[in-house]
Amino acid sequence: MKIGNVDLGERPVVLAPMEDVTDVSFRVLCREQGAAMVTTEFIPSDGLIRDATKAIAKMRTLEEEAPVAIQIYGHIPESMVDAARMADNAAEIAGGHGADIIDINFGCPVSKIAGRGAGSGMMREPDKMVAITKAVVEACRKPVTVKTRLGWDDSSKIIVELAERLQDVGIAALTVHGRTRCQMYKGSADWTLIGEIKNNPRMHIPIIGNGDITTPEGAKEAFDRYGVDGIMVGRASFGHPWIFKEIRHYLDTGTLMEPMTVEEKVELAKRHFALSLDYKGQNRGIYEMRRHLSCYFKGLPEFKPTRMKLVTSMDPDEILSLLDYVKDTWGGMQLPVEENVYGI
Fold first, then answer.
1. How far apart are CA 43 and CA 55, in angstroms?
2. CA of 275: how far to CAs of 134, 268, 293, 301, in Å?
3. 38, 15 in Cβ contact below 8 A?
4. Is the confidence at residue 272, as pLDDT, over 60?
5. Active site includes 182?
6. Which of 101, 141, 204, 206 is placed for a possible disulfide with 69 were both Cys, Cβ 3.0 to 4.6 Å?
7. Residue 6 three-state SS
């Protein structure tokens, strides 16, 4: 599968953008674990054009995570165009690798974003969505992609027609989350319309499906049943970055990978922790690692006191000692299957 000139290989599995999750350390780790591509946390267009420090910092990517997409969102056409140009030149503005792809977020369902017309709020204004996309495509040298949803609610699932319109203004690929905005993340993702987009003879750009991919078997079914070019994994990667390796192994061999041991998870957590400290410094690195450490070892019996220590300590040496304690105490234990552990 190619997005513009970016080759992601056959049946790629990519990391979804998630605010406060897909920071640089997690993206690098997921690439190491087999993700074909990663995406930044979504970046507000108005923050970029105001030169907000946090927004600029989110554009900094590394060679180790390439190929990487920088994702922007907003509802004001002029701001989106200016922000897209900045993302297109992220290496010069923020340093690092820059963007291989510019992605537009028309899918975030959070009220503070969708309620003001950005993210999936744009599903209520499809003409404006298409106009913004056209302007961004024309402003960028890099391939432009869109991530969106089925529609605003069950009575307005407009994605099949909308996909054609977005393709016609020049996007290089389309990712569709199989829920409406009003569903948020509730219920089950509906892949039937994603399959309808892919099977539309007018569509020629890659279609990436997103929603409820939590197991290798589910990933294979998405490819086989709906014919998508790629799949995107979001919440199921949280505390479980090796899901990309598991899916890749199953797609390539038809057999399930041996489950990760507690010892292997400890070593991966240490690697993740080291990346977080390296890229963000001690205090911020520890603070932002907590959300990940709280999930790495779900399913271990009587683990709550240790988890509380892991997510409250500000001492790197103590955190490493606690991880060694996890290995020494629970090493060799057979854990529940991943889909039940993470409950996503």
1. 6
2. 37, 11, 13, 28
3. yes
4. yes
5. no
6. 101
7. strand
| Secondary structure class of 69 (helix, strand, coil) | strand
Half-sphere exposure at residue 206, Cβ-oriented, CA atoms within 13 angstroms: 28
pLDDT band at residue 332 under the 50/70/90 scheme: confident
- For 4, the 3-state DSSP assignment is coil
Give the tens place of pLDDT for each residue, 36-83. 999 999 999 999 999 899 999 999 999 999 999 999 999 999 999 999
Cα–Cα distance, 260 to 163 (Å, whole number): 39
129-144 per-position pLDDT tens digit: 999 999 999 999 999 9
Residue with tokens 């970029």: 48
Task: Return all residues near 284 (Cβ < 8 A) that are at least 6 apart.
Answer: none
Active-site residue identified among 108, 140, 182, 295: 108
Alpha-carbon distance of 54 to 43, in angstroms, equals 9
What is the H or E stretch that residue 161 is in?
A: helix 159-168
- CA pair distance 54, 44, nearest whole angstrom: 10
Which residue's entry shows tokens 């409250």? 312
DSSP 8-state secondary structure symbol assigned to residue 210: E
Please classify residue 18 by burial: count the beta carbons closer than 10 Å to its beta carbon, then call 0-12 exposed, 13-18 middle and 19+ buried. middle
Token pair of 276, please? 């977080």
Strand-pair category, 101-106 with 2-3: unpaired
Q: Which residue has the tokens 């897909």?
A: 22
Tokens linked to 155:
């009575």
Count of CB atoms within 10 A of residue 242's CB?
Answer: 21
Q: Which residues contact 80 (CB under 8 A, 6 or more apart)?
A: 45, 72, 74, 104, 132, 135, 136
With beta carbons less than 8 A apart as the criterion, state whether 211 and 189 touch: yes
Burial degree of 264 (CB within 10 A; 0-12, 13-18, 19+): middle
Alpha-carbon distances, residue 52 vs 187, 278, 344 (angstroms): 36, 23, 34
